Amino acid sequence: MKYLRPLLVFFAAVACSHVDAQVASASPVNGSPMPAASYGSISASNAAVFKACAAAPPTHGACPLDAVFGLFKLAPNNDVLDFLVSNTVPRVVNQNYGWILQLNQMTGKVRVLERMTLPETPKTWGAGGQPYGTSADRKTISLDVTLTVYNGTVSKSWDVAHGDPAGHYLISAFIENAAPVQFEFDVLDPK
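Given the sequence above, the corresponding structure tokens read:
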């Protein structure tokens, strides 16, 4: 399991060794703040988070209003060419995937705690300079990052690494003091 490599146009990279940290901080597709399909399949727990954030006063702090998960298509120089909303990720080395959150603030920085849980322990989580920890069974990793908000969005990306297991994955993204936004998806072997 490793992060997406630095995207020159849309993402602010965080230095890390094997986990090539990639923290995304912008609209990944043609300057659009959120992909049009973002309202497709919002879980009840995420809908409750978005509703609470929409009702919270602006002084409450950064809070997610919408979210989308999917696949990134990258150019050879790592510029984002496309984003496809999806809840499945092909288990193909270097397949890029991740989430985009629309926030209640247009600019600034936000602190995000991200937890990813895999169905089995991966061959490697990598190591690096970013604060993180893994669970005792090494199926879950936690990352504490600060993301820059661009046009009201932040995002976080990963790419499939050799040895990542197939199966059901869960990512929980905690933005500042808000309840977590959760992304459930399946990593599947290509047919």
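The CA atoms of residues 88 and 186 lie 5 Å apart. Try to locate this feature in the token string yourself.
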